[in-house]
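Private note to self, pasted from the team thread so I don't lose it. Backbone tokens:
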């Protein structure tokens, strides 16, 4: 497909690519302010209790160490908007890894050495860090993450299950998962003339500014937060994290600029993670494969600091038609770090369980798994009854099956083998909601014929600058090279964070409106723009606040071929194909990168990533990239992403849906279903590591 250079969809190279590969792009830790100091956080080594004493004399004796902050001498904060930001405010230890001190020095090495010399005495209390599906503390919350009701029921699910011709009943388990972006959570803070400036590794600097304003009792106009380049986040940088608060506290205490970068082995306990889940899925169907009942029940955990309930049962309210449905969430508060967003929260773990259960139902029926899904696509959104703005799942499944060669496979499990390798194929559907938030933007036409777009978007590696330039150029009828985009500072027009696959839709809507208004102003102006140029602004508050009569979702289909070593239990993904229905794709190059990145992350979810909590000490067992295994190039063979043409007029001026997260949603289930097809063994706990597979192969 070819495009004019200014049209959305054209595969333009991202604008900041050269800066990133040459080191010219400056991240939060790269801001070398005069007189800068470095801070090293000290984590709690108990899972519950209080700090009795901190002996800092040996730490202060380390050359270069300036001071040590604890709850006794750290600046006092107002009540923050997020309890995880109330650091160094009292002696309580709510979980292992909670920051209990901060060593500040002339160099990172001195700060780290000083932290190692700090002696901390605790008063320990009993702790509980183990999630079970019958935990006595389990309760039903009012809401799950995203404001979703914790419980939804239609019809009489129990009676429908009992009366179904075919029933399946299985429980699926997942350990905690961690975001682990390449750039750790880092902030550089400076106070000057009563103003605070923070360079923060964040997915949304406006939100960080507002959090800091509340915590430090400042007017937001006295704070600037800059997130110009961000090395990944995957949700862990979606809300304000302790590094911004701690760096600002240290800078206020010392009167010097301070940089704080959380060490990799501390990230798991302070910046959120995907909570472990226990998910029971029961399906009932007629003999022809028509679903009559869906029951998806989720058990998960949260911390004692704040409540976060992974909304894993919510996708079952959208995905398939059935007259009877029950979806529930129960949660227990444990002495664990606070869970939070991780790429496709809710959909990623929930669709793993649902799509694995659909595969089990297909086996019980003797029905092709693709055909089973096609027979149960709803005409309207099951939970709300609203019509879909568009629904491309059937097209994704059919095109994916054709591209993958699905119908050529032998459906019998454990029927294909090449030497010691057992071969299998699997399929899974995917969905993700279309989300959009209010954004503002400013567009300016200069006298020299160039344009400037200003919006506080954040580029977390997605190519936001490039796509926003294309959106503006399209509205202006201009060449993208003439459009300059400025993002990444809270001093710019307010915009929402990069998260929930909503960034481009939210920012782009405001940019399109501002640019279209600018085009009208230019057309009405006689001759070229005046010396001072022409400026327009846009605010999408009214449009984004209006309730839509349509259910708006992206859909996709994942196909996987796996090879399982019959001797070692090793699993290799030979082929992975994703086909998506995401409205109008705004840049083919960056979109494909997003899709494949999500699919690779899904491979990790299926095969390598998992992290339990040590019941004795309350800490995560895999704290770094040596023990927490993310996929590498050798784990990813042939990965292809395609999309169907989808004209959805009920979204935004660009006709686009989010693409950052749907790539991971169905991948783990497709891989797991392929492993079952290869081996004949159905494993229901991720990741599918060799030690779990071997007992079924010997």
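Design output:
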């Amino acid at each position: 497909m070819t495009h004019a250079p200014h049209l959305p969809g054209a595969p333009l190279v991202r604008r900041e690519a050269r800066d990133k590969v040459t080191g010219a792009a400056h991240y939060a830790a790269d801001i070398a302010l005069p007189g800068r100091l470095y801070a090293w956080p000290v984590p709690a080594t108990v899972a519950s209790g209080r700090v009795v004493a901190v002996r800092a004399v040996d730490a202060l004796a380390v050359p270069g160490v300036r001071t040590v902050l604890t709850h006794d001498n750290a600046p006092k904060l107002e009540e923050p908007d997020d309890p995880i930001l109330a650091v160094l405010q009292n002696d309580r230890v709510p979980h292992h890894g909670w920051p209990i001190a901060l060593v500040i020095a002339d160099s990172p090495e001195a700060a780290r050495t000083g932290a190692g010399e700090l002696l901390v005495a605790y008063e320990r209390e009993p702790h509980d860090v183990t999630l079970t599906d019958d935990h006595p503390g389990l309760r039903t919350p009012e809401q799950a993450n995203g404001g979703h009701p914790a419980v939804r029921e239609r019809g009489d699910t129990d009676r429908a299950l009992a009366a179904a011709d075919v029933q399946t009943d299985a429980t699926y388990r997942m350990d905690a998962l961690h975001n682990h972006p390449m750039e750790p959570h880092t902030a550089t803070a400076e106070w000057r003339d009563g103003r605070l400036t923070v360079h923060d590794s964040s997915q949304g600097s406006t939100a960080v500014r507002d959090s800091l304003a509340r915590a430090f009792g400042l007017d937001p106009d006295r704070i600037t937060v800059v997130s110009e380049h961000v090395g990944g986040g995957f949700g862990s940088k979606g809300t304000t994290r302790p590094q911004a608060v701690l760096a600002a506290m240290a800078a206020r205490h010392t009167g010097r600029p301070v940089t704080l970068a959380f060490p990799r082995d501390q990230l798991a306990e302070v910046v959120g993670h995907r909570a472990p889940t226990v998910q029971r899925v029961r399906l009932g169907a007629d003999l022809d494969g028509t679903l009559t009942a869906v029951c998806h029940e989720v058990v998960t955990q949260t911390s004692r600091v704040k409540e976060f309930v992974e909304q894993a049962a919510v996708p079952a309210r959208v995905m398939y038609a059935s007259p009877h449905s029950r979806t529930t969430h129960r949660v227990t508060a444990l002495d664990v770090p606070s869970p939070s967003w991780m790429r496709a929260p809710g959909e990623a773990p929930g669709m793993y369980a649902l799509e694995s259960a659909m595969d089990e139902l297909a086996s019980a029926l003797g029905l092709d798994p693709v055909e089973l899904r096609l027979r149960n696509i709803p005409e309207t959104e099951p939970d709300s009854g609203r019509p879909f703005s568009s629904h491309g799942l059937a097209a994704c499944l059919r095109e994916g099956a054709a591209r993958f060669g699905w119908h050529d496979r032998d459906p019998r499990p454990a029927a294909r083998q090449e030497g010691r390798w057992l071969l299998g194929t699997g399929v899974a559907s995917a969905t993700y909601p279309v989300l959009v938030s209010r954004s503002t933007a400013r567009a300016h036409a200069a006298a020299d014929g160039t344009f400037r777009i200003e919006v506080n978007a954040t580029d977390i590696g997605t190519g936001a600058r490039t796509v926003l330039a294309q959106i503006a150029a399209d509205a202006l009828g201009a060449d993208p090279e003439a459009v300059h985009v400025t993002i990444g500072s809270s001093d710019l027009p307010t915009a929402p964070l990069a998260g929930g696959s909503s960034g481009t839709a939210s920012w782009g809507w405001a940019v399109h409106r501002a640019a279209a208004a600018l085009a009208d102003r230019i057309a009405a102006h006689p001759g070229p723009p005046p010396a001072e140029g022409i400026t327009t602004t846009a605010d999408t508050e009214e449009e984004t606040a209006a309730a839509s009569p349509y259910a708006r979702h992206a859909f996709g289909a994942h196909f996987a071929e796996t090879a399982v070593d019959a001797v070692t239990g090793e699993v290799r993904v030979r082929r992975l194909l994703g086909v998506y229905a995401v409205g109008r794709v705004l840049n083919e190059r960056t979109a494909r990168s997003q899709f494949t990145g999500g699919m690779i992350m899904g491979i990790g979810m299926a095969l390598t990533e998992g992290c339990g909590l040590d019941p004795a000490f309350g800490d995560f067992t895999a704290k770094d990239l040596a023990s927490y295994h993310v996929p590498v190039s050798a784990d990813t063979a042939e990965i292809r992403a395609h999309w169907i043409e989808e004209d959805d007029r009920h979204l935004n001026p660009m006709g686009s849906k989010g693409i950052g997260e749907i790539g991971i949603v169905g991948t783990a289930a497709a891989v797991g279903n392929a492993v079952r097809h290869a081996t004949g063994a159905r494993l229901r706990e991720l990741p599918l590591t060799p030690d779990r597979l071997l007992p079924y192969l010997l």
